[in-house]
């Protein structure tokens, strides 16, 4: 069996979770089935970059990482994702909102 790679030395669970339950998030990357999603072939795309979902629960993995169960209404998938794979749509920093300008108002309509 392959070793599980711990891709960084940071212990995320020493800090509060980055996302809260119910928070609206967007996927920063494509997520494929690694064999843990029933009913889909291994390698099948579960989430595309930019898909919008909602955090439904927060768990941990390997006593190091937070895993966010994110429900994507458009596809009906609920997928476990790491914080580095997600971007908030509800709590963007003021400097980011300023850079978006008038487009920042459109964030409220993205579902």
What does this structure look like?
The chain has a single domain (12-109), classed as Roll (SH3 type barrels). Helices cover 6% and strands 32% of the residues. A five-stranded antiparallel β-sheet has the order 6-5-4-1-7, with no helix packed on it. A two-stranded antiparallel sheet has the order 2-3. With 111 residues, it is mostly beta strands. The protein contains one helix and seven strands; from the N terminus they run βββββββα. The chain is globular. The chain has one helix at residues 94-100, and strands at 24-27, 31-32, 45-47, 52-61, 65-72, 77-81, 86-88. The mean pLDDT is 80.
List keywords for this structure.
about 110 residues; mainly beta; SH3 type barrels; 5-stranded antiparallel beta sheet; 7 strands; globular
Question: Quick summary of this structure?
Answer:
The protein is built from 1 helix and 7 strands; from the N terminus they run βββββββα.
């Amino acid at each position: 069996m392959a070793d599980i790679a711990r891709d960084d030395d940071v212990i995320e669970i020493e800090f509060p979770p980055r996302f809260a339950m119910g928070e609206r998030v967007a996927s920063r990357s494509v997520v494929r089935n690694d064999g843990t999603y029933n009913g889909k072939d291994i390698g099948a795309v579960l989430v595309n970059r930019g898909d919008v979902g909602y955090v439904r629960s927060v768990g941990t993995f390997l006593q190091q990482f937070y895993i966010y169960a994110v429900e994507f209404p458009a596809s009906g998938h609920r997928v476990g994702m790491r914080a580095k794979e997600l971007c908030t749509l509800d709590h963007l920093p003021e400097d980011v909102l300023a850079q978006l300008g008038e487009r920042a108002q459109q964030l409220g309509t993205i579902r």
